[in-house]
Every structure is written in C-alpha cells, then in structure tokens.
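Recap for those who missed Tuesday's class. We walked through two folding examples back to back. For each one, the amino acid string is listed first and its predicted structure tokens come directly after. Nothing is annotated here on purpose, so try labeling regions yourself before you check the end of the notes.
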Amino acid sequence: MKNPVLTISALLFIFLLFLFPASGNAESTLDIHDFTNFPAVRNVKISPDGLNLSIVFKKQGRDFLGILDRRTLKVLKTFGVKGARKSVGKVYWVNNKRIVYSVTQSYAWDKEIFDNGELVGVNIDGTQHKLIFGYGAGESQIATRRRAKKAEYGNQEIIDLLKKDDKNILIAFFPWRVKGHTWVNNENAKTIIYRLNVYTGEKQSIDYLPLPNASAITDTKGRVRFAVGEDDNNYYKIFFKPLHSNSWQPFDIKDFEGRKPRPLSFTEDNNKVYISANVDSGTRALYLFNLKTGSIKKIFHDSNVDISDYIRDFSGRKVVAVATDLGKPEYHFLDQKSLKVKYQKMFLKSFRGNDVVITSATRLVDFLIVFVYSDTNPGDFYLFDTKKRQAHYIVSRRKQIDPKYMATSKSLVFKARDGQILHGYITLPFHQHKNLPMVVLPHGGPHGIRDRWGFDWETQLLANRGYAVLQVNFRGSGGFGIKFLEDGYGKWGTLMQDDITDATKEMITKGIADPNRICIYGASYGAYAALMGVVREPNLYQCAIGSAGVYNLPMMFQSGDIATRKNGIAYLKDALGEDIQDQKNRSPVYNVNKIKAPVLLIHGTKDRRAPIEQARSLMKALKQHHKKFEWLKVSSEGHGYYDGKNRVKVYSRILKFLDKYIGANAVHLSRTKHSATP
C-alpha cells in the first residue's frame, strides 16, 4: 500500500531528490551515515481546510519549514529561522493561512539542541514572518507610542490553539533566572498563562498557576481549569479552578483508589474530565470523573503495563481508545462508534506489521495525515482521503533505509532470579538467529524511562553489523507501575543490574548469544550499567562501552545539573540513597579492581547532566589499577551527540571496538590462537 494512487509533480520530485537523495546501496550492509544522520523529515501536518500541508525537513544540519499544495504536492514556499544554528521546532496550524512554530538552537561551542523559548508566526505565502514571543521579541519604548512588548526570558508551551479564535492562542510560560553567566530554569517562579496574538505578538497575562513549573489543562472553552506539578520533594500536586471562580483549590477525589491522578481532557459539555491514575502501587488506568456529582468510573486498566497513549476523537476531547506497549503496541477500543476508531482499525489492518498514528486531520475530517512505522521501518507519511478511501504516499523519514534489510525486534518475556516477570526486546541481525555476538544495551534514565518497540537507528546499526542487540526493562524502568519503578530506588548496581545479568544469561541459554562474544554498552545510566556489568560479572562480558556516563555516585550530589535543583537533590536521595559508603560500593570508580574486560569511554566536553569529571575519575582509577581501556573525548558535545561528524566519529569508534573484541576480528584472532595451541 506504499504507492497507491500516487502521482508526484516533477517539481516536487526534484525537491524531494534534493532533500532525500537515494543512497544507491541495494545491499543489506548500509553506510554508517544512513543510520547516524538525523531523519530528513520530522513531521507532516495538514491545514484545517485541507488545502495545504506543512513539512519540516532537514537541510545542511538545520530544520526548515515547507508548505505544499495538498492536491498537487507542489512546493509553494520554504523558509527557516534567521540566526546562526537556529531551526524550526514544533509546528502548529493556528488557522488556514497562518502557522506558528517554536525555535530550537545550538552553539558553536555546544552542539546540543535546545528549545530557546521563542515562537515565530508566518503566513503560508511567507508574509508576516516574524518573532512573536521570546527574549528577542521585546521592543524599545522609544520605538512605539503604545506599550512596548516585553522580552520574555524562559520556555513556553502552547496549551490551547483556541479553534474558534483565529488570532490568539494560549501559552504557558516558564521563566528563567540568571545563574553565573547563563540563564537557567527558575524553579521558584510560578507558571504564567498568556493569551498571545499570533500576528502582532501582543500578549495578555490571564492567569498564574499555583505552583512553579506546573502544566495547565483547559476546558473546551479555553478556560484554564487544572494545574499539575510537583513540589521541591517531588510530591505530586494537582489544583482545580471551579467555574465562576478566580481562585485555585487543591483537587481531591474522595475514597479514590488511584495515586498520582492526572487530568487529561474535558468532555464536550465540560461536566466531566478524563483522568489517568495508578491503581494503588500498580499500573496506570483511565477514569472518567464527574465534576458535578464527584463520582468516578474506571474505563480501562491493564494490571501488567501502563497505558502508553490516549487516543482522542477528532475534537481532541473524548478518549475513544488507549494503547499499551507490553511488547508491540496494542490498541483497546473504548467507543466502537467513533469515526477515529473506525479509521484506526482500518489502517492497522491495511498496514499489517506496522503501528499507525493519525497525526492531524482537517476540520471536516475529509483528509487525514497518517504516520506508519515499525521496528524495521523508520516511518512513512500518507495523505488519506476519507471520501475516496485512498491513501497517498507523501514522504519517508529516512528514505535511504530499506525496511526489508532491517532487523526485526522480538518481544522478550522472562523471569528474573527472584521470580519477577521482566519484559524487553531482542533484535537479531538479518537472517541470523543463533550463536551470535551480542550487545547488551541498557537504556538511560533510568527511572520512568523504558525501551519500546519501534525503529531505533542505534539498535539497527549494531544489528546491521551482525550483532544481536538485547534491551531489557529492568526494575526502576517506567511503564510497569509505581512499585516496579520504585523497586529500583537505591538499587542501582544491585537489583537493577541483576535484571540485566539475568536477561543476558537467558539469551545464552536460548542459544541466541555466543557466551564468548558479549559486550555491554550504554549511554547515561546505561553507561553506568555497562561498567557495573563488568564489575559485578567480570566473566560474563568480553568488553564494556560507556558513553556520557555516571561512574561515581557520590559525585552526582556535587556536580551536574540535577544537583543544582531542590527537586533534583530529592530525586538523587530517592534514586541513590543517602549512605555515601553504600554509594561507593555501587560505583564503578571504587570497584575497578574487579574489572577484567577492556573498556571504551566516550564523553562530551560540555555535558551538564553527567559532567566529564565523571569519566575522568573513572579513567584515573583504571590507570591506577592498570586496567585496559580506551578513551574518546568529543569536543563541544553535551549529554548526547548532535553534530553529524561527531556522531560518525563516535559510532565508528564503537563499531571498531566491538569488532576488536566480539566481532569478526575477534573471531579471527580467537581461531588463530586456537590453531597455534598444541
């Protein structure tokens, strides 16, 4: 169904060739750039009247915005953000003719991409292209007789597009403060709600949320009714504003089984609100709460896994389905009469083996934009005509990737040594299934983060080079309930590490992994787990790779951006415990004497989350104990690698290291040694 009823104009064809050149490689082994390059297309949306499409595409490392005619797919206009290293961020159609987009930015000395708080408005013909909000949107009082617009230093989030108002939107504003010579988030400043004119940039403050950094939920008439956030100790707080009242009050549901309730959206009449909450210490459920009577009804709950997505009808209000990701995404339809449900079922049936997301729709729901992806498919965008019931292929996120040569990810279910059921994924190289070199890839985070089914370019790169890739949602991961998450508190390097070890041994038992060719590799917390893996299990892994890692737990309280916030300190106390000796016992730096496997450390010089001192402290300890290690310092990169050349450098080094110790070169050396032995 990839090219049904598709005729692309010559102009668009040239445009797409320029943006997405064919790789010219029909073989199964792809060039490293095919994986490390950022997707050529990030998003496609349709205008409310269905006449035009917006598309965010990458050119020379920056994101630009393109406008296409829906009928011909002819490119009408392309434009980007003025200013060095600035790019188009999130894109919103605010009416048929005008778009608002956020701005992302990086620096020559720090390649990490961040949202700089600015909003830009532009008409689809390119006129009235101007900055409407942010630190650069201020005016001098001398330049105008009316009240000058004030520069706003902080981040923003669009909370309501106000569908019945073509000129204004609602945004939540999160102020910054100066620390040293830089702007940082002001953890004491309350969130401000502005009504913002998308043409002039004029704004009106209409509310202050009752706690700092809180998120807001509006009702169907654009009134801010809920505020949700956490205090300095990370205790969950929720406030409610009744109709005809200007004061916020704590929100409480009497005799409610749920923990950490979170409002999602109001019903059309504003009398009820959808709420998600954890059932006691278990997984998250969906409820419908009646604001008038105080009654609450449970709509859906899976005791094994959290709800991963709430699918609303085309009004954006009523929850008509939910998704869960125990393995591959699974949909549970709550309203069989819903038009959204009807189309979702149709797409899942038509694109078998893929997950399907309806990303946008026209107001009359005569056209939809559909995103189709899988574990082997990076994702394709389609235009669906609901009257003709025809899907037209638009563009792919990574045109150079041929899904038929990608590796499939299979769901993994097994018991840990204490009987706990754990879930994960095993990705096997193309047409290979047994006795494979394997990379164990623990995720970062770790708390609240989990591995999911879908296209992962890093996993696919490793599998494309012949490695099986193991990912496991160990204790402490998100998605499996409060208890599962909190079971990881204070268990870094112990229980959480045992879960990874048990998964690795399970792959050996099943004959998938060659026990003499296993490496553990991760980034951030994953790097910590990689190094603790070779500390705790010195004979299980043949090598370890840590990227942007944490290796000294006591140092977490002394350096890095987490320790600069009150709620960050509270998090560290929960996650790591407060016993310094216990932290040292669970730190790779203080246990390098147990390491036998060679180690590769990679770190960015501008990392604020896990400063490079973490890696340097481990290197010092490795040297003192005469351990074998390699080192790669990446200039101008933070907690991740955003420059294209740096990505190639990092992953070329990783592949070389893996090949040396568990890859083809390792097999060759092993056989040579074996044949020379009498």
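Example two. Treat it independently of the first, because the proteins are unrelated.
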Amino acid sequence: MCGIVGVIAKNELGKEWAKYIPAATAALKQRGPDAQNYFSGDDAELGHCRLTIIDLSESANQPMHDDELVTIYNGEIFNFKEIRKKLEEDRVPFKTQSDTEVLLKLYKMYGEKMLDHLNGFFAFAIYDKKNKSCFVARDRFGVKPLFYFENENCFLFASELKSLLQFPIPREIDHESLYEYLQLNYIPAPNTIFRNVKKLLPGHFLHFQNGTVECKRYYLLDESSEKQIAVTNYSEAKNRLFELLNDAVRLRLISDVPLGAFLSGGIDSSIVCGLASRHTQHLKTFSIGYREHEFFDETKYARLVSKHFNTEHTVFSLTRSDLHESLFEVLNYFDEPFGDSSALPVYILSQHTRKHVKVSLSGDGADELFGGYLKHLAEFRARNQQLPELSAAFLSPLWKLIPKSRNSSLSNLARKAQRYSDGIKLNLHDRYWKWCSVADEEQVTALLQLHHEETQYAQRKNYLTRYIGSKKDLNDVLLNDVSMVLPDDMLSKIDYMSMAASLEVRTPFLDYRVAEFAFSIPASFKIDRRHRKKIVHDAFRDFLPPELRNRRKQGFEIPLHSFLTRELKPILHNYVSDSFILEQKIFDLSAIRNLLEQLYSSNPNDSAARMWGLLVFQHWWKQWMS
C-alpha cells in the first residue's frame, strides 16, 4: 500500500508546479513510511511513498521505470503471479518479484485493456516518456482513492486531498457538496469539498495527452454481472458463493510481511477469518470493545469465533477516554469533512493491529452486495406492505411521542420506527436518499446561511440515485449502495483510517468475481421479510459457530451521544460557539443553538450524528480554511 502524487505540465507555467512535489509526497508519508522517491521528466514530476508488502527489496521501490514508461502505484494485484506467468510465456523479462513490475509490463502489452486482467485494488499512474502522455486508473469498486485537479497550466493527481493542497490550488468550498455532506456525513464522488477538485470514479481511468484530460469508464458492475451465467437454483448458488469467497480470501493472503484479520464477531468478518484459517496457520485476529457500554460491545462473539477457528486473538478494550485520546489524530488526518463516527474505532483498531501485523483482512462490502443493512429490510417491507407495515404508518403519531436516540434498545427502536413511517410516504428515490441520510434537506437548509444551487443539487441527487428503480427487485438499492455508499463512506473510512496507521486492509467480499455473482442472483436469495444477507448466512451456516446463526447485526458504532455530551463537551461548545459561527458566516446561529438544545434533551434522536458531522467540519475548516 502506498501514496502517489503527480503533476503533468501543459506549459512553462505548469512546470513551475513541480517544485511542490516534495511537500506533496511528504504529506502522504503515513500511507508509505518505508520509502519515498521521485521521478523528474521534461514535463512530469512524480512522487511515491511506499509501504512494503510484496518484494521488500529496494529494486521494487517506485517510481519504477523501463525504457519508455514509468509508474507510481498504490494497491495490490492479487493475481499478479498468474499474470506474470502468462507474460513470461510470451518472453517478457522481469527484474523484480513485485506486482508493480507486472503492472508496468502488462500496460506495455495491452494498454488500457490491461485493466480487464487485474484482480485487486489500486490507483496508479503510468507516464509515457516518449509521447508525454499519462494513464491514471482506479479500481473497480473504489477501494483505493484518487483525487485530481486541472487548470490551464497543469494536471495534478494524488492519493489524498491533503497532497494536492500542497500545491497553490484555489480553496473554494463547493456549496452543493457541503449541502450533501450535512445530509449524508460524507461527500459522494466525483465531487469533493472544493469546487475545482474531483475524485476519479471507481471503474474509471483518465488519459492525459496533448494538454487534454479524457475520462472514461472501463467497468460497470451491472453490465458485467449480466454476462454471468445466471444461477437460479438456491442450493447451487450457496455452493458457488462459498467457493468464490474461499478463493477470494486465498488470493488475499499473499504477502511478504505479517498478516492478520479484523474480527468483530459479526458474520462477515467471522466468515473471512474462518476461510483464512483454512489457508494459513496461526492466523492473528483483532477486535475492539467498550468497557463502559455493553450495548455497543460484541467482543464475546469475536472470542467465540476465534476459539472455533483456533486463531491467535487480541481484544482491545476501550473507554470513552481512549476515544478522546485518539480524537485529534483522526480529525487531523481528514483532509475533507468525513462525518462517519465509526472512523474513530476503525482508526484505533488499525493503530493497535499495526503493532502486530502490516496487513489485515476485513469483511467490508458484504452488506452492500447481499443486503445486510436494516434499511434494506425496511425497503423490502415498504415495497411489500402487509399489516405490520401498515400499522407502523398508522402509529406514526405515537412514535413522535416516544424519546428517540441510539443509546438503548427501546429508544433506538422508536427512532427506527419513526424513520420507517416517514420513509414509506415517499417515492423510491426520495426514500432511498432519506434512509441514507442523517438529516433531511429541510434541516440542512435551515442550518446554512450559504445557499446551494437548486438545479445543480437536483442533478447531482438524480445521478447519485440513478440505479433506484432500474431493477425488478431490491438489487436496484444494493447496486446504488455499491456505487455511492460503499466507495464514498465505507471504503473511504477504511482507507483513511488504516492508512493513518500505515496498515493495509484487504476486502475479500469485493473480489470482482464475488460482486458479479452477487448481482447475477435474484434479490430474493438475499433478503425477505425476516432475513438480511440470507444466502450469506445459509452458505456458511455449518461453517460458523451455531451461536452466530440468529444474532442480530450490530454496526461498528461508538457511544456517540454520551461521548459528545461528556468528554467532548468543551471541544464541541468551542466549535459551535456564537463567536465562531458568526465569524465563519456559513451556519445559521439559531439553527445551531436548536441542534445543540436537542442534543442535550431527553429526545435527541439523530442529533448526535448530525452534531458529530458538524464538529468534524468545524475542525476541518479551522485546519484547512482559516
């Protein structure tokens, strides 16, 4: 795993920007602490930070050259040995044992079509010294990030926004992005918090030549899954899923450094750990729990799974004080507002895990592919209403009277019931957006002094919900989650926080073969009135400990409300103080006061999630905009 940054000049003024490459590379050092190197060409300057995982020798450092090409690369190609073997049969010579060299030689043979051969996650650039062109690509599902900027003088790209901010690019807040952020607590691609900086979409590449940047899509999950042989027999589908995921895990165990796995105690990470233990001895597994909040703790299940598969298990037991101690390390790493509060425990888990291993497997991606979230069950019931759903809508006035929060089972149930009864009144697109959000459009509009552009926002929202209604079953919602929620929330969180700890995290469920299989089967194999991720549970029913079969799904959450109203109270009040709000001229002071009042009330609802997103933004603003 690594960090990459590059500047390609269009003219003499653009060449002046090459002087910022050392600082831009240094900004990525946590992604690659083992080596930092540069390439200088007539009109190109490339920087690379390396985290050594495969072929630890200096000969595998980057930028890597041959006669005509030079590459910088962030990621892993898990099938690189098979690709190398085929290239060697065509008498292609190799000097290293790295997957980077395979990437370079594959591009030389196939050009942009080389992307079809890769099974892995990546963001890379290949510069052609002869024709002064540059090819930049991102993996199919957006596991690895890539930001870019273009003006009349140059083209810039980097693994992280903070690297680009070492260049003198304008820092103009995109109002539509801020409006989306305050609803979702993250900013969906291709946009960023800055108007003139973009994220390369998953499954896309950029080609720079003759001063022009062209963006193309090379992969679409929907089209690729339709080409698969449909499996309509449920028993056969279960067996196929087991085989595919087993091989995906096997491929992701390739490493020249110590490797382990996250083990939360949920079904997804338990499956990954169980399959990994079939292919490697003495697998190291890691989990975290909360001493003060049993409601958020699932470490007893992690221990049970560890015992079942005979792994070497380590539990990190946290208090809110531990969360507090890591707070500013997390907030300082964010170079774009990112309000998913579970980033904090992911960082702490990554930090502790990094003391033992350099690579970890995780179960991320399963929920989006196979329908694991409560909103998926809610959507199924909204489309297939029976008496309980009709009753929920009828009882909407009652839910409004019951205090709602995420702090206990009863208050959380009331919160979910109110959210459901509000959502079923909406059309498919608006309901999807609402159930992805922590705040309504009306709430965010009231919060902001800055006005977004309605037409542009509507166009963005239509694009971000483009798959809703495209299928005859619930696969439309799952496909939309894979295109938006997965890369821009879940995978961004994993990448941000694992890279902050210099840890590589691999996601077997996002092997493209598993994903294509997931969308070649009907949604009825995944979800019904009572079950989420049905085929995942059934395919691994006899493989996992029986205690996991009927346990409820538990998100990777923190006791956010008590954290904000106790340990973080002084920090929060500083960030939403009257003087700061008036100085910023971004937020409406009375709306901020109302949100703060709700947070401390007996009926906080989702105010903690909203306030956390606001706190993150305020810290980001002080760090990058003051």
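Answers for example two:
The radius of gyration is 24 Å.
Residues 234-251 form the longest helix (18 residues).
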